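Tokens in:
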């Protein structure tokens, strides 16, 4: 039995062949440092207790199906967060709860695309976006986010890619995998381009509160008024509740011109009945309570200190370089190919796993044309991050 040929264009190396090999090695007794997945709970960064209690106390209410858009308290909490950010044209009717952002990305693209429609995606991107585009018969068109420009896109280059079949512009900010946080002027230019060409803006803002060294996050919904803007976020990263599988998509901007699209989303949401209900009861508490992530992203906080350990290790390395991440929970280092001319990110990642027992993700797995980068999470403690950089240097010294 042969699978669909669509899957030939789909890759997700974050949980691919390298992860499968790591599992085999663990079964053989090896201890693997897993830096491939942004999974806070695996490194002791637990979901806040108040959120856990909110789920427990509402379990009785969570047994039936909910409305296909989600429970009212969760959607209302999202609306209130948007209003706090100055986005006043959002109602609960425009909020869709999903089984994580992943499901909602798929639903939103499925409701939008005809076969052959193009979606503008950043390169590097989070590969789920490319996969969901392909699996919904769309065509990914990549705009470059170059390390020489701090992985920030060039709006003129983005506009030059727009064609007759272009339907949507995807923005990932703060960015996964690079950690770039886009300046206001760049976001304004991208908004103007989308409005001028009548593109739907799909903005992935799951890391919106994970920021370092004074970086400022600007919600896309505060800028987009004359075209439809769909904002994606959820509990997985900022609130360290990956397993709850709770995300939301919020329609704003020119919603009055997108009623058919909203109804299509309602239909698709109804076909899967509803999202995970128990986890939705944590949303109101998460968004309205103490933002514990703030303690993790300053000096003395685990994410900040691990980031500093990575930057310090790379600064002292003769083989590595990096654009310092301003947000999210990843580093995206580059290898100096003058010193390691034959470097290949996939071969290196497998060698690092086999010889040094460290699992990370090749940079080209993020639909990045260059093969001299890799992604690592910043979730382990700082001393572990420092040890990982030493192991990487040892292997690159052998290559050199």
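Residues out:
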């Amino acid at each position: 039995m042969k699978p669909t040929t669509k899957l030939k264009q789909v890759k997700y190396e974050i949980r691919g062949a390298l992860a499968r090999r790591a599992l085999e090695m663990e079964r053989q007794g090896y201890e693997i440092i897993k830096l491939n997945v942004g999974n806070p709970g695996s490194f002791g960064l637990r979901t806040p207790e108040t959120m856990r209690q909110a789920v427990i106390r509402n379990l009785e209410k969570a047994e039936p199906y909910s409305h296909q858009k989600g429970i009212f308290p969760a959607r209302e909490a999202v609306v209130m967060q948007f209003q706090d950010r100055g986005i006043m044209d959002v109602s609960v009717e425009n909020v869709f709860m999903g089984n994580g952002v992943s499901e909602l990305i798929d639903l939103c693209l499925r409701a939008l695309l005809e076969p052959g429609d193009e979606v503008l995606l950043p390169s590097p991107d989070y590969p789920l976006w490319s996969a969901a585009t392909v699996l919904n018969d769309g065509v990914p068109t990549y705009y470059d986010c170059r390390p020489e420009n701090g992985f920030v896109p060039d709006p003129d280059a983005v506009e030059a890619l727009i064609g007759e079949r272009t339907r949507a512009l995807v923005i990932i900010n703060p960015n996964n995998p690079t950690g770039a946080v886009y300046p206001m002027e760049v976001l304004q230019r991208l908004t103007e381009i989308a409005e001028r060409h009548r593109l739907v803006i799909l903005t992935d803002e799951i890391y919106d509160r994970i920021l370092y060294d004074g970086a400022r996050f600007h919600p896309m919904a505060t800028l987009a008024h004359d075209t439809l803007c769909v904002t994606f976020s959820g509990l997985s990263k900022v609130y360290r509740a990956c397993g709850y599988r709770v995300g939301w998509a919020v329609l704003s901007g020119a919603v009055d011109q997108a009623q058919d699209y909203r109804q299509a989303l309602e239909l698709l949401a109804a076909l899967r009945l509803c999202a995970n209900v128990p986890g939705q009861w944590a949303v109101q508490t998460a968004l309205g309570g103490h933002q514990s992530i703030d303690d993790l992203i300053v000096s003395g906080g685990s994410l900040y200190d691990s980031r500093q350990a990575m930057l310090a290790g790379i600064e002292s390395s003769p083989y590595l370089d990096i654009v310092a991440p301003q947000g999210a929970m990843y580093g995206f280092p580059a290898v100096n190919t003058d010193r390691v001319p034959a470097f290949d990110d996939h071969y290196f990642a497998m060698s690092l796993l086999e010889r040094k027992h460290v699992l990370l993700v090749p940079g080209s797995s993020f639909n990045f044309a260059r093969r001299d980068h890799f992604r690592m999470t910043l979730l382990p403690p700082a001393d572990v991050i420092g040890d990982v950089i030493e192991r990487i240097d040892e292997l690159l010294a052998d290559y050199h």
